[in-house]
C-alpha cells in the first residue's frame, strides 16, 4: 500500500521510500521510514497532507505513490 | 551557471572579520533576532553569481549575517546552497528553533553542531508552545546539545537580552564521536570541518570541488542524526494533547477543495476590490489627478517656464508631453506607488498568515499540467506584485526545468501590480464581456505555453513537498515594515527606468523620429493589430516597462475590442528592463535572449490573431472560442510531435541531477 491510496483519518507507518533524495528530505522532516503519521487530508487527485505532532506536510501525489506505508490501528 | 554546480563560494562580506551567522528553519522568527542585534543599519548584498540578497549588519565587533530558512545543510535547492556557504564560513552561529517543532528543527541544530562551529541555540515561540501544551526542559536540552540554550518570545522582546548575554558562551557542542573521527580524515583535503562533513553527506558541489571520491554516507549519517534528535526530543519535551482550535480548522478548510476554492476565490476577489477597484480608482484618482496633475505639475511648470522655454528641446524633455519632472513623477508616485503599496500590503499579510503554502497544496494538481508543482504558485502570485522579484523567487523551485518554465511564464503572461492597476483602470471603463475576453486570452496563453513547454523540455519536474505552517494572525507592525521596504525598493528601481523611458520617447519626439517610427511600424500596428498608429509609442515605452506602455494606452481613445487587443499585446510583450536583467542573471545568456525574443513574437502574433479573428466574427465569444481552439490545436500538435514522458521515479529533486 502506498501513501497515495491511504484514506483520510488513518494513522500509518512509513514503510519505505523509493527515491534517495526524497528519503533524505523525509529524514530531515522527521517522517523517515519507521515513523508514524496521520493522514490529515487528501486533495482529490492532488497532494496528500500528513500530520506528525504539530507539523503538517503536503506531499505531491506522484511522490506519495512512491512512499510505501502500513496501517497502524 | 555557477550556482548549479554547487561548488562552495567565498563571500566578500565581512572579510577578515568575525562573522556571526543566524540560521534556522523557515518561519522561526530569525528576522526579529537579526533586527534586534543589528539595529537600523542593515546592508543588503547580492550573493555572488546570483541575485539573492544576504542581509548583514554589525553587532559590537561582529559582522552579523542572515540566511534563508532551511531544513538542513545541503544543496537540494539554491536557497540551501546559499545558506550552506554562509553558515560554513561562520565563526559563530546563532541557531533559532521553533519550540513547536523541536523534533524537526533540531535536525539542523545537530547538523550545525556537527560542523564544529560554536553555537548558541534560541528556542523561540515558547509562549505558543505552552498554549498548545508543550513543556520543554531547557536545562536538559542544553545538556544534551552541549551548547547554551535560551528560551525566547522574540516578537514580544522576551529572551533577546538573554540570547545576547549567551553569545560569548557559544561553544562547539556534543558531536557524534564516530562521525567526528571521519571528519578528521576528510578535513585534511577540505578548507574546514563543515565542508568535510557535507562531503561525507554526499554534497555534490563540495565533493567535485575537492575531488573527493570516498563513499557517500548521507543516508547513514542522516538516519543516525534523526535517531539522536528523536531521543533528545523524547527526553526534553512532554506534551499534553489538545483539540483542534479555530486556526487549525481554518487551515484545513483552506486546503480542502470544497472549502478551499471558495476561500481562494474570496481572497482574490477581495484583492481585486481592494487594489483593482478602490486603490486603482478612488485612491489613484486622488493622488494622480488631484495631487499630481492638479497641483504638482502646474507648480513645477510654473517654476520652470521662468528659466527654460516650453518650446525648447530641454523644456520639452523636462516638462513636455513625456516630461522627466512632470509625467515621470506623476506616473511613478501618483499612479503606480499607491498600487504597489496596496499590493505589497496584501501580499505581506498573506505571507505572514501561513496561507500561501496552503494555496500551493490546493493548486498542485492544476500546476502539474503546466510542468510545475504547487510551490510555483508562490512566484506566480508574487509576479502580480513585481515580476522582477518573482523571477528571483523562482530559485525556491527544485529543478532547472521548473525554473525555466516559471521564469518564462512570468515574463510572458503575468502583469505586475503597476501594470495590472493601469489595465484594470482601462478595463473598468469597457463592457464586462471584453474584460472576460482579455482574461481568457491571457489565461489560454498561460496554459498553452506552459503545457507546450512541459511537453517539449526534456526531463520531469519535481514533486511537491512543502510544510504547512500554522495559520497565524499577521502582526501589523511586521506587515507594514515589509510593505515599506518593498515599496521603497520599487520606487528606487522604477524611477531611473521610467526616467530613461520618458527621455527616450522625448528625444524621439523632439527629433521627429517618433513620427517616422510610427509610420514605419504602421503595417504592424495599423495593418496587423488594427490599432491607431500612435500605439507604436506604447510599445516603444513598453520596451522599458510594460506598465509604462499600458499607461500610455489609457490616454488613447480606443474602441473596446482595440483596447483588448492592445492590452493583450502589451501584457505579453517584453518584461521590464529590470526583469530582463534578472532573467539574464538567473539563466544563461542564450536562454534569456531566446525568452526575450519569444515574448516579442508571441505578443504580436497573439495580438494580431485576436484582432483578425474579431474582425472576422465581430463577436466576443466566437473570437474567444476560436482563439482557445487554436491554442488547443497547438498543444495537441506539441503532444504529437514530442515523445511521451516515461518513468517518473528516475528524476531527482535536486537541481544538478534534474538535467542530466
Automatic annotation (TrEMBL), chain A:
Keyword Iron: yes
Keywords, in A-Z order: Iron
One Pfam assignment: FeoA
Domain Ferrous iron transporter FeoA-like: from-to ranges: 1-71
UniProt superkingdom: Bacteria
InterPro entries from the UniProt entry: Fe-transptr_FeoA-like (IPR007167), FeoA_core_dom (IPR038157), Transcriptional_repressor_C (IPR008988)
Protein name: Ferrous iron transport protein A
Automatic annotation (TrEMBL), chain B:
Location of the FeoB-type G domain: 17-173
Pfam families given in the database record: FeoB_C, FeoB_N, Gate
Keyword Ubl conjugation included in the entry's annotation: no
Membrane topology field: Multi-pass membrane protein
Domain of life: Bacteria
SUPFAM superfamilies: P-loop containing nucleoside triphosphate hydrolases (SSF52540)
Localization per Swiss-Prot or TrEMBL: Cell membrane
InterPro entries from the UniProt entry: Fe2_transport_prot-B, Fe2_transport_prot_B_C, FeoB_GTPase, G_FEOB_dom, Gate_dom, GTP-bd, P-loop_NTPase
Residue spans crossing the bilayer: 258-279, 324-347, 376-398, 405-428, 434-453, 494-514, 563-584, 593-614, 620-641
UniProt main location, coarse: membrane
Keyword vocabulary terms for this entry: Cell membrane, GTP-binding, Ion transport, Iron, Iron transport, Membrane, Nucleotide-binding, Transmembrane, Transmembrane helix, Transport
Keyword Signal: no
Family classification: Belongs to the TRAFAC class TrmE-Era-EngA-EngB-Septin-like GTPase superfamily. FeoB GTPase (TC 9.A.8) family.
Xref: PANTHER family: FE(2+) TRANSPORTER FEOB, FERROUS IRON TRANSPORT PROTEIN B
Summary of the function given for this chain in its UniProt record: Probable transporter of a GTP-driven Fe(2+) uptake system.
Designated name of the protein: Ferrous iron transport protein B
Organism encoding this protein: Heliobacterium chlorum
